[in-house]
Amino acid sequence: MAENLVYSSKINKIRSFALILIFVGFAIMYGGLLAKKIEWLMLILFLIGILFILLSCVVYFWIGMLSTKAVSIVCPNCEKPTKMLGRVDACMHCKQPLTLDKDLEGMEFDEKYNKRKYRKQAKSNNKR
Ligand SMILES: [Zn+2]
């Protein structure tokens, strides 16, 4: 079970990455405010801060693009609807590892999570 907790959904990961970028951007701009006595330093810090915020906008946009490609399935573990990216991902709610590809069985995850039952469920949901 401990391994499951380490692996979180890809969309969630990217989303928290974008959030961190925004915080870093604002922190750097705040640093710019503190350094307003040194004009060039303030300007540089503001520019870097704006860059970080722009980057996070790009990442958010990217998440939007990925979400449209993501496959909606119902998690076999917690039975909540979740989205999968790629062939292997984790449930957004309970972090249950999920796969759509039987070739990956037992490769990235413990084999017990790739049982036929789970896979069939994922596939039939995928076809909707
Ligand atoms: Zn789940």
From TrEMBL:
- Is Membrane among the key words of this record? yes
UniProt KW keywords: Cell membrane, Membrane, Transmembrane, Transmembrane helix
Topology relative to the membrane, per the entry? Multi-pass membrane protein
Localization (cell): Cell membrane
Q: Which residues form a coiled coil?
A: none
Q: Which residues cross the membrane?
A: 16-34, 40-63
What the entry lists under InterPro entries is as follows: UPF0295
Keyword Metal-binding part of the UniProt annotation: no
Primary subcellular site in the record, as a coarse category: membrane
Family recorded in the similarity comment = Belongs to the UPF0295 family.
HAMAP family assigned = UPF0295
Name by which UniProt lists this protein? UPF0295 protein FH966_08040
What is the native source organism of this protein? Lentibacillus cibarius
